[in-house]
Amino acid sequence: MDDQTASLIYAPHLQSNLSTIFTIKFLTAVFSGATAGVLGLTNLAGFLLFAVSTLVSAALVVFLKCGGKPSLYIGDGKTLSTRGAVMQLLLPGVDNFFGFILTWTLLYGIIHVYD
């Protein structure tokens, strides 16, 4: 993409959009961890729940909030590529992954430890 097209994104709006995306990803990770813990999922089943919930939340953001064009709202730092924007939505990040594991093990331990 050329510099003229890249300059169409207003930086404060991009920062707000990325903050909203981070919040959505964090809440998805925490709620999927809570769900896995309450349901008593272990091993691969819990991680599959996390992967599916991440994919579903990314798809909802792309199609419902971005109208199928996430590159208009989420830049990848250098260019306005759709691939880079979708990858930002799909990758959970280390903080969100650890948040998932923390809530998963916490609720699993509270609910299912004396079964």
TrEMBL record:
GO CC annotation terms, alphabetical: EMC complex
Major subcellular site: endoplasmic reticulum
UniProt key word Transmembrane: yes
Any Gene Ontology biological process: protein folding in endoplasmic reticulum
This protein's name: ER membrane protein complex subunit 6
Record's bilayer topology term: Multi-pass membrane protein
Domain of life where this protein originates: Eukaryota
Transmembrane segments: 21-41, 47-68, 89-111
Organism per entry: Serendipita indica (strain DSM 11827)
Localisation per UniProt entry: Endoplasmic reticulum membrane
Pfam hit, one: EMC6
Family in the record: Belongs to the EMC6 family.
This protein's UniProt keywords: Endoplasmic reticulum, Membrane, Transmembrane, Transmembrane helix
